[in-house]
Fold:
Amino acid sequence: MKGWEFTGTHQPLKIVEKPDPKAKPGYVVLKTLAGGLCHSDVSALDLESWMPSFNVPVIMGHEVCGEIVEIGEGVEGYEIGDVVSVCPLYAKDGTTPGYTRDGGYGTMTTAPVEQLVKVPEGLSVAKAAAATDAGATSYHAVCTVGGIKPGMKVGIIGVGGLGQFAVRIAVVKGCEVYVATRKQSAQELALSLGAKEVKPCITDFADKNLDVIVDFAGAGKTTADAINTVAQYGKVVLVGMAADTAQINTYPLIFKEMSIEGSQGSTTDDLRDCLELLASGKLDPEIHTCKFEEIGEGIEKLRRGEVSGRLVCIYD
Structure:
């Protein structure tokens, strides 16, 4: 097998050849069909603070869709030839694809059975890969942590790879969606996805009594603005990590009796629900594709901010 290997911060990814993986108990071996490229991998390449999360050297890529080619002892409910998406979190052994075990930037990879979700028939492998992180992470933040219900007023901050999923998910779930983004193309995208209104800043919706605000930017000020804007007894969900600190006003936190929660990743249930929405056609994110040999350049495009939507490598 071949893969794009991560060896440390400030070191470029390099293509390596390794022996094909073998299925250990509780695991399957996958022929990679699609691997999503994520901006968090740019952060890992650029920021020393990400290094403790990795077991280097490791083939990167935590957004994986693949075909089962070998099944380990104890795996039930799956057969060789099944096409599956891999939830990146909650492996029983604590491993994560692309971080502590070889992931989706490789032509083959492995996954424990508890991280597998079968891909609905007819769904493209590109969407199935993007669903594992951008899709399911957004679903988890908006639905599972945010607890949205039909008729609620929901604020979304940021319409990047995750935010575009979140806007549409909230619309499909029957909510009124108000989006904050400064980028003109993102504003147009949000409206096309069904947002009721789009403004540059979430505080522009201070009169809308937003029940839930999900901050996909996490730029410090965006989180503080969300706290100031959310309705009485409302909830702010923090997903974005553009800044690791935020100076907040505790007055609204106390007197509105609001709550703020963090949201990390997703569960297999979130991923399964997201895949079903994608298969139904109600959720149709903007996805661009590249080839295996172009993963390095794809990372550079992400670094330069040249990718709208999600970028996914398709394997031949």
Summary: The longest strand covers residues 27-37. The helical segments are 39-46, 125-145, 163-172, 184-192, 221-229, 250-255, 268-280, 295-303. The radius of gyration is 19 Å.
